[in-house]
Amino acid sequence: MRDKSFLMIPGPTPVPESVLLEIAKHPIGHRSSEFSKILENVYANLKYVFQTKNDVFVYTASGTGAMCAALENLINEGDHVLCLVLGNFGNRWAKIASSCGAVVEKIEVDTGEVIDPEVLRARLAQDVNKEIKIVTLTHSETSTGAANDVKTLCKIIREHGAISVVDGVTSVCAMECKPDAWGIDVLVSGSQKGFMIPPGLSFLVANDRAWELHEKCKHPSFYFDWDAYRKSTRANSTPYTPAVNLFAGLNVALEMIKQDGIENMNARHKKHAMALRHALQSIGLELVVKDDNKASHSITSVLPPDGISVPDIRKIMKEDFDIVIANGQNKLKDKIFRMGTLGFVCDRDIITAVGALEATLYKLGYKFELGKGVSTAIKELA
Ligand SMILES: *Cc1c(COP(=O)(O)O)cnc(C)c1O
Asked: 363 CA distance to ligand 1 centroid (A)?
């Protein structure tokens, strides 16, 4: 049905009406005092959301832009970078590091698994000459739905002395993620995921240790240069023309997040992800991430029942129920489907999605106890 579409993909995510209306207004000048007031508010509220005392930079770029902004401000040719890889997004760090001329080493795990802290500890212990300058990791790996124990991993990285660079694109807002308290040296995120606004902005926060390494970076990125961004951010400005309408929308969305409370928002995401996981398991579906403790709270990957295809499930969900769910990526294409519960999502959406998925599977001939998933979700959410 026209205008009924509900996005349950891992970004873009649904956008609140008040944010959409704000974005729909005429653009304002980015050097106006009016815009500067918006920036002042946005920068302050971002520190609240990221739970940091450091400046949070906002780039007019998708999440990958902020990932480039991280590594292109830290790496010199020949630097040794260790990339902890759970899937596609972990691999993206490795590709960006290579593009900066780094010597890249990976620790990779099987689909749905997470990094074992002891494996990381053992690898870093071997590095007696401290050749590893940077360790990259992904908090919530969107391609599989697995989530690393970032707090523990960053503690191990800190003990070694390397700089930790964390992709929090589908974790910030959805999962507890505390750069200052956990010693994450650089953390990035993106607007179209937990922030409840459309694609086009991304975020980066770096601490003093990361800045020390940045000062040794001989050829930092021009567009993403940390020095230029710090100077402007502190002056409630931006170095170049930003996506002004998205900033206006972000301002409204951040007020909503603040009113809700970041802890409440995190807790709600956990409740939704667990309700969805248990509902799907109750109708006999197999999840890619078996252990609740290793699961992302923003994205759930599911294997289709035997004999039922992922494209058919996605097609009926879309055509009959106006719910858009994601396919697997690359080698997981048509092998799994992924349901996002990220950002502007409420209990009703979970119950509806489980109900629609049951109806879809019923139509496709899957044999299960009809209604069991919905009743499981209702009980878990209560
Ligand atoms: C979406 C996403 C990104 C960034 O992707 P863009 O398409 O550049 O916004 C990075 N990491 C993860 C884990 C993501 O889910």
From this structure: 33
Residue 295 φ/ψ, nearest 5 degrees: -95, 140
What is the C-alpha separation between 140 and 311, in angstroms, rounded? 25
345: tokens are 């999502």
Nearest in space to 55 (alpha carbons), one of 43, 45, 65, 68: 43
pLDDT digits 0-9 by tens, 54-101: 999 999 999 999 999 999 999 999 999 999 999 999 999 999 999 999
Q: Cα(167) to centroid of ligand 1, in Å?
A: 8
Ligand 1 atom index nearest CA of 64 = 8
Distance, CA 32 to ligand 1 centroid (Å)? 31
Q: Please choose, from the candidates 126, 73, 130, the residue with its C-alpha nearest in 3D space to the C-alpha of residue 96.
A: 73
Nearest atom, ligand 1, residue 139 CA:
13
Give residues with Cβ within 8 angstroms of 299, minimum separation 6.
Answer: 10, 140, 142, 145, 170, 338, 339, 340, 341, 342
Q: Residue 270: its pLDDT value, please?
A: 98
Residue 95 CB contacts under 8 Å (≥ 6 apart), including other chains:
none
Q: How far is the CA of 89 from the centre of ligand 1 (A)?
A: 7
Give the closest residue (by CA) to ligand 1 atom 5: 63
The neighbouring-strand residues paired with 80 are: 103, 132
> Could you read off the pLDDT of 202-250 as tens digits, one per residue?
999 999 999 999 999 999 999 999 999 999 999 999 999 999 999 999 9
What residues flank ligand 1, with Cβ below 6 Å? 10-11, 62-64, 89, 138, 142, 167, 169-170, 190
Query: DSSP readout, 298-325?
Result: SEEEEEPPTT--HHHHHHHHHHHH-EEE
| Ligand 1 atom showing the smallest separation from residue 202 Cα | 9
Angle (deg, nearest 10), helices 117-126 and 150-160: 10
The closest residue, in CA terms, to atom 15 on ligand 1 is: 142
Mapping DSSP to helix (H, G, I), strand (E, B) and coil, where does residue 188 land?
strand
Is residue 90 a contact partner of residue 68, using CB atoms and an 8 Å limit?
A: no
Contact status, residue 174 vs residue 266, Cβ threshold 8 Å: yes
